Amino acid sequence: MKKIHFIGIGGVGMSALAELSLNLGMSIQGTEVDLNEYTYRLREMGVEIFDRYSRFNIKDVDLVIVSSGVMPNNVELEEASNKGIPIIPRARLLAEITRRQSGIIVTGSHGKTTTSGLIATLLEEAGKDPTFIIGGNIIDFESNFKHGFGNFVVIEADESDGSVFFFSPYIALLTNFDMEHVDYWKGGTKECCNVFSFFFNMIPFCGSSIICVDSFILNSFIRTLKGRVLTYGLNTNADYYIKNIYFKGGFTYFNVIKYGKFLGEFRTRLLGVHNIQNALGALIVADELQISTFIVAKTLESYAGINRRLTYIGERKNILVIDDYAHHPTEIAVVIKTIKRLFYNRRLVVLFEPHRATRFYHLLNEFIDAFSNIDMLFLCDVYFAGEINLFKDNLIKLVKETSNLNFLQVGSISTLASKLISIVKDGDIVLTLGAGHVSKWAWHIYSSL
C-alpha cells in the first residue's frame, strides 16, 4: 500500500490511529483545518498535513480514512469517491491493524475514556506493555496513544454510530447507556439493546462481558448473553458492587464487595460517584487478568486521570477555573453535582458549548434540568461536528421560551469568554463544558483573570 490519507487527521482518535499506522510502517498523510497539538506532533514525525481541504490533496493515495465529524459533501471525500479510492471509517482500520492482539473494548454512553485509560494504566503497571487508543490524554502518559508490544490492546469504541461492530473483543466492558446519540438510534432503546446483545455475543467463551447494571435499560439485554457475564455498580445485586464511599484528604475512598464478600478498600484521586463506578469497571478487568489487588490499589491511588475530566485549570483572585468534556445532560448533571458537593458555598458560573444541534434539540428539557442548579450560564453557538445546521437561531429561542435559566447568549466563544471575565467575582467557580473548542477558552479565561 502506497499511502493512506486521513480526512480530519487532527481529531484525538484519528491522530492516534495515524501514529499507530506510521509505527507499523505505513505511509500516511492527512488534512486538518484546525491545527492542534496532535497535528504538530505528527508533523514532527514527518507526516505531511494539509491545513485546508482540497481535491488536489487526494493524489497517489490508496486508501482514505474518514472521521465521523467530516461532512458528507467534503471535497476530499467526493474526490476519493470519484477516483474509486476505497473509503473506510476510522474504526474499521483500527480493528484491522489490532486484530492480532487480544482486544479489551470499552463502550457505553459515558465514562469510556476514564475507564479505558485506567485499564491501560493498570496493564502498564502490571508489566503487560499494552497498546491503547482512547478518546483523551491520560495525564500520566501525556498521550491518548501507546504502541506496546504486549498481547493486549485497549480500545475505546464508539457506540454512537455502530462502529463498535468492527471489533472482535476478548473482554468487552459496557459502562452505561442512555439515548445520547438520538441521531443514530432511530429504533430507540429496543434497537440499541439488540445491537449490544449481538456485539457481546461475539465474545469467545474464554472471554468476558463486564456490564454496569446501574443503567436500568441494560438489565433486559443481559439475559440474552450466552458467555461469561460479570455485573458491577452501586446495585447490591451486582457481582461486584461499591459501598461506603467517602471523601477525605484529597482522595475518594470506597469498598468493593465481590460475590458478597469484602474484596478491599481502595482510594483514588478521581472525584464523583460516576468515577468510582468507572474505577470499579477497570478493577474487574484487572481481576479477570489476574492482576494483583496490590497493583490495582497502588495504581488507583496514583492515577491522575484523563485530561478534560474535571480538570483543574487554576485559581486566581479566588476564582477557580475547571474544565470538563461533558456534553450530554447526564454527564453535565453529574459534573455539576460533584462540584456543588465539593464547593457547596461558592457561586457556579458555566460556559457551555452545545455539541451537535440534534442532541441539543431533542434533549433540550434534559439540558435545562441539568443546568437548573447553577448561578449563571453562558451559552455558546452550537458546535455542529459534521452536522448540517438546520436549526439556526431556533435553539436559543427555544431555551428562552421553555426555561427560567439565568443565561447569556452572545454568539462566539471568544465573545462569551470576554463577557464572562467581566462578570465573575471573588469566590466564583468557572466551569467550561463541551466536546468542541471550549477547552482552549478555559485557559484563556484563567490567564485573563
Describe this structure in words.
- The structure is a single chain.
- The chain has 449 residues and is α/β, with parallel strands linked by helices.
- It has 3 domains: 4-88, Rossmann fold, CATH 3.40.50.720; 98-302, UDP-N-acetylmuramoyl-L-alanine:D-glutamate ligase (3-Layer(aba) Sandwich), CATH 3.40.1190; 311-448, Mur ligase, C-terminal domain (Protein-Tyrosine Phosphatase, Chain A, Alpha-Beta Complex).
- It is 34% helix and 25% strand.
- The strands form 3 sheets. Strands 8-7-9-6-10-11-12-13-14-15 form a 10-stranded mixed β-sheet, sandwiched between helices. Strands 16-17-21-18-19-20 form a 6-stranded mixed β-sheet, with helices on both faces.
- Strand 13 (240-248) and strand 14 form a beta hairpin.
- The radius of gyration is 22 Å and the shape is globular.
- The N and C termini lie far apart (52 Å).
In short:
The protein has 449 residues and is of the alpha/beta class.
What is the residue-mean pLDDT, rounded to a whole number?
88
Basic shape = globular
CATH class bucket of the largest domain: Alpha Beta
Largest sheet: 10 strands, mixed
Kindly report how far apart the N and C termini lie: 52 Å
CATH architecture of the largest domain: 3-Layer(aba) Sandwich
Proportion of strand residues: 25-35%
Provide the helix percentage. 25-40%
